[in-house]
Amino acid sequence: MDFNMKKLASDAGIFFTRAVQFTEEKFGQAEKTELDAHFENLLARADSTKNWTEKILRQTEVLLQPNPSARVEEFLYEKLDRKVPSRVTNGELLAQYMAEAASELGPTTPYGKTLIKVAEAEKRLGAAERDFIHTASINFLTPLRNFLEGDWKTISKERRLLQNRRLDLDASKARLKKAKAAEAKATTVPDFQETRPRNYILSASASALWSDEVDKAEQELRVAQTEFDRQAEVTRLLLEGISSTHVNHLRCLHEFVESQTTYYAQCYRHMLDLQKQLGRFPGTFVGTTEPASPPLSSTSPTTTAATMPVMPSVASLAPPGEAALCLEEVAPPASGTRKARVLYDYEAADSSELALLADELITVYSLPGMDPDWLIGERGNKKGKVPVTYLELLS
To which H or E segment does residue 101 belong? Predict the structure, then answer.
């Protein structure tokens, strides 16, 4: 018990000495040992690495999981060392709603059939998103989090220890400086301005006491300097290891880009398939008739595997029976024409299609061997293919 009390008193004394030294430094009343420029640069680079790693980590988490409540739930599960429950992605949930809507509204109607096709595509998109989130979490988020929770905590601990060693060193320097000043004063000026022998004896005793104090302060300074130098070397080695951290994070960043490239390439292919199923020619979009630009080629094996396919031409996608079909030469059948109301605006993808305006009435009919998702539409002297999903057949 006595030993513990002595240790507690000693720790309290050291803490008080450091607090006094720190306060005097803040008010400019004490000298402070400055670190060399190289060491300061290492500290600044480490702080910058830590700050930007935190920001990149947090924003990547937002990218992968935009829902803040879900992020908080996952954080709590990780802190409790429990498995995060499986959660459906937004795409998979949308696919489920579309499939249920199609089942209730009629899976054989044009709207119902389209809902089913889009639901299947959204389900594939959701599965691709799930794979991307899993891969990015393992290959990118985990190394960043390990740095912040592992290496950086070690660096912070050693930096705090270095700060304490520096305060001890500066306190020892200040103590030695005061002891030397008191010794010099005791040597040159007697305690009393009298010539009695007793006063000279007192002055000599004080000088001897301050001399012992100087020797003790010098010994403490040597010990403090040794501990400070040792701790500075340990901290410097850890700070120089930030370069290895940058190399590791660079590799993880490459893996994140590759996984993101693969994810978007999968999404692109799924949407191309959906376009074909809906009768829209790939490579053309509403508002433009220019084909989509081909993706950039790459020699990387991972990038090559995820490269988006080059878009085929419109002519190559047309059915064999329609490839050479000239709509202007096609006569409408004697019977089988119907009136249809346009539900939405539709811009023709090429010259074989008919542009539509919402709520207008047109005449439509089908040709033998024609895709059931398409009809021939006529408005005045203009005719062209129109998608069934944009029409409401009236009679």
Answer: helix 90-105
Our measurement of the distance from residue 345's CA atom to the centroid of its chain's CA atoms, rounded to an integer in Å, reads 40
Residue 373 φ/ψ, nearest 5 degrees: -80, 0
The residues facing 252 across adjacent strands are none
3-class secondary-structure state, position 321? helix
| Tens digit of pLDDT at every position of the chain (395 positions) | 455 666 666 566 676 677 776 676 666 666 777 888 999 999 999 999 999 999 999 999 999 988 777 777 777 766 666 776 677 888 999 999 999 999 999 989 989 999 999 999 999 999 999 999 999 999 999 999 999 999 999 999 999 999 989 888 888 888 888 877 776 776 665 544 544 554 544 455 666 676 777 788 888 889 989 999 999 999 999 999 999 999 999 999 999 999 999 999 999 999 998 988 887 544 434 434 344 444 444 444 444 444 444 444 333 444 444 444 566 666 666 567 888 988 888 888 888 889 988 888 999 988 877 888 889 998 888 889 998 888 888 86
pTM above threshold 0.85? no
Q: Which residues pair with 382 in a beta bridge?
A: 379
Where would I find the H helices in 241-297?
242-278
